[in-house]
Amino acid sequence: MLIALPIDTGWLRRPECREQLIKAASGIGIGMAVFPGGSGDPLEGRRAVAGLVQLLESAQDRVAVLRTDLAGIGAMAFGAVATSIGLSAALRHTVTAGGRAFAQQDRSPRVLVKPLLSWTRGSQLAQVVRDGRLLSCDCPVCYGRSLRRFIREDADSIREAATHSVLVWRSIVDRILDEQPNRRRTAWLEMCAEAINNHAALRTSSRIALQVPRYLNSWTALSV
Fold first, then answer.
1. Residue 90 has what pLDDT?
2. Largest Cα span, the chain
3. What residues contact residue 99 under an 8 Å CB cut-off, 6+ apart?
4. CA dist., res. 186 & res. 182, Å (int)
5. Nearest-CA neighbor of 131 among 200, 61, 213?
6. Could you tell me the CA-to-CA distances from 24 to 7, 13, 94, 141 in Å, in that order?
7. What are the pLDDT digits (tens) for 161-182?
């Protein structure tokens, strides 16, 4: 049994709020499903990530982190009992009542690029000239094809990109869970560091302004 707890990530970022949250989690006596909320990606900042990790360590396998971005995989590596990752920003990010998830005018499919550990618009990937096969994918949808093909805004392309993304993030979760429990944290942080390096390599080879998502730096800032 889990009790649902939507929270603003300020409860994770601020030490005094975080302590109250940890105390409440300890006093509930049953599992807790946390829905982190805020503008943009709620779990991209260093203090929010560090606060989430402290909560997970204190709750000892009694916390699920739901409706989140790739931080859900990091949460699993650090002891979360379950996670869920949405197929769009609107389904990944919890917002306050009356608020709206971040949206862009670009309607090309948003694609999860495994070597980059990030979602990127197909229109941006299409600008890449040389990628050293970083954008080639071997999932059962792509069969070795390049992710640069996702430039059309039709329903079929969006559905194919979504299916690809689910398969990719599931493969990342499987890779983490295949590790011994005492190795999962290190494995996740190594993947984040490798993704940062891959962003740099892609920027150098293609001269495209591909920015490293803040959450990658936030996770690699942790020490294990």
1. 57
2. 55
3. 39
4. 8
5. 200
6. 13, 16, 21, 44
7. 999 999 999 999 999 999 999 9
Q: What is the β-pairing status of strands 118-121 and 110-113?
A: antiparallel
Phi, psi angles (nearest 5°) of residue 130? -125, 125
For helices 46-59 and 15-28, angle between their N-to-C axes, nearest 10 degrees: 30
For residue 89, what are its two tokens? 């920003």
Mean pLDDT on 144-151: 95
Say how far apart CA 194 and CA 196 lie, in whole Å: 5
